[in-house]
Amino acid sequence: MRLLERMRKEWFMIGIVLAIAGAKLEPSIGVNGGPLKPEITVSYIAVATIFFNSGLSLKTEELTSALVHIKLHLFIQIFTLAFFPATIWLFLQLLSITPINEWLLKGLQTVGCMPPPVSSAVILTKAVGGNEAAAIFNSAFGSFLVSKHDLTHLFLLL
């Protein structure tokens, strides 16, 4: 009986361990084009589910009032998609004269051009008592901009 209680309490960790073990035993299930179709389920369905769940926790008035803060959204998008990648690029120019591996620098440049992960942006904003509605909007909008218009290539070419 005690083991069953512990399993109920730790159901999430048990699920993670089982998912990892399943992936180790049969990795072909999770590859692109495989039965799970991660190119669709991870890219679209998982992100949409995160936004949907986050949106359910907001009042409609909060979300609509957050949408009218155009200056805030413009600042966040410019900072995330232009200022930060440009700053990282300048930093990488300095690092390029050091003996750091070229591929590590390319990886840093790629990560520097990406918007913050959706879940992190929303969860951290909520944890510090920030404007959660604005965080959800900007995360969704930034992810949409990057995925649909592929703005990261602009900075990768620099």
What are the defining features of this structure?
mainly alpha; about 75% helix; about 160 residues
Verbal overview:
Helix 5 (70-95) crosses helix 8. The chain is an all-alpha fold. It has helices at 2-9, 11-25, 38-56, 60-67, 70-95, 102-112, 118-127, 132-149, 152-156. It contains nine helices and no strands. The model is unreliable at 154-158 (pLDDT under 50). The chain crosses the membrane at residues 41-58, 70-92. Belongs to the bile acid:sodium symporter (BASS) (TC 2.A.28) family. Pfam families: SBF_like. This is Solute carrier family 10 member 7. InterPro entries: Na+/solute_symporter_sf, Put_Na-Bile_cotransptr.
* Anisotropy-based shape: extended
* Terminal residue distance: 61 Å
For the largest beta-sheet, the strand count, sense and barrel status come to: none
Structural class: mainly alpha
What is the succession of H and E elements?
Answer: HHHHHHHHH
The number of strands is 0
Overall mean pLDDT: 81
C-alpha-based Rg, rounded: 20 Å
Low-confidence stretches: 154-158
Instruction: Bin the strand percentage.
Output: under 5%
**Number of helical elements:** 9
